[in-house]
Amino acid sequence: ALDPATGGVAWRQRLDAAVGGAPAVSDGRVYVVARDASAWAVRASDGKVEWTLPGTPSTAGVMGVAAPAVDARQVIFPFSSGQMVAVAKDSGTGLWGAQVAGQRRGRAYAAYSDLTGDPVIAGGVVYAGTSAGRLAAVNADTGLTLWSARDGALSPVAVAGDSVFLVNDEDQLVRLNASTGEEIWRVDMPYFTKDRDKRRKAIVAHFGPVLAGGRLVVASSDGLIRTFDPASGALAATVDLPGGAASAPAVAGGVLYVVTKDGKLRAFR
């Protein structure tokens, strides 16, 4: 942990494996998921370990590790096996478990069931997606699956009203009904760049979406920020992003922040 005023190291805590996803912080605790399928709660003030949770061992983890989600009662840990485990925030006592199951046919990457879309808690529902082409909505109190959609999520979904917005595992921007999982619309985005016909140079990575200024914002590795109309999915505008996106955009104080592939943090109004 770093001191925000000076940038100096406030404390260090050694874990049994590398941390794979972003930490979640709530009520004086830091929650993380490690690459050995374990979860940790450490004290934010000094880094002391308060409790740990063993996950389900998996040969996955290839596509990355998602970050925990926290609400007033519980913390939800996502694991590379496709399993979510909810535990009490203060003690780590188990509350429920849920599996995001299923694969997209005809895609080699679907063999990996990593939970890559950080769980999002909204309206008493947990939304989480895998790299294998599945998104699930789970009751936040019981862990019962409410619906499952055949669209993976490589970034956290955006929930607004009765809609769920996501960039799926096939580089499509998708809007689903939050209550049923039914598709409302989907829009194709650039999937790969070419240097000559019939040759794929690089897969384009899209990060987001986030809702800002009444638009859906997607930052992409091809050097563009794209904004879309949430009602129709129509492309509204594009903005140059030198270096190309390397992370999901974040919005604070009317400013959009994106980390780019050249290691810079860029801000847009």
How would you describe this protein?
The chain is an all-beta fold. Helices cover 0% and strands 48% of the residues. The protein contains no helices and 25 strands. β14 and β15 form a beta hairpin. It is globular and about 50 Å long. The mean pLDDT is 88.
Shape: globular
User: Uncertain runs with pLDDT below 50, 5 residues or more?
Assistant: none
Tell me, rounded to a whole number, the average pLDDT. Answer: 88
Total strands: the figure is 25
Descriptive keywords:
269 residues; mainly beta; Methylamine Dehydrogenase, Chain H; Thrombin, subunit H; 2 domains; four-stranded antiparallel sheet; globular
Describe the structure in brief.
This protein is mainly beta and 269 residues long. It folds into 2 domains: 1-188, Methylamine Dehydrogenase, Chain H (7 Propeller); 192-269, Thrombin, subunit H (Beta Barrel), CATH 2.40.10. It has strands at residues 24-26, 29-33, 38-43, 49-54, 69-70, 74-78, 83-88, 94-99, 115-122, 125-130, 135-139, 145-149, 158-160, 163-167, 172-177, 183-188, 192-196, 199-203, 206-212, 215-220, 224-228, 235-240, 250-252, 255-259, 265-268.
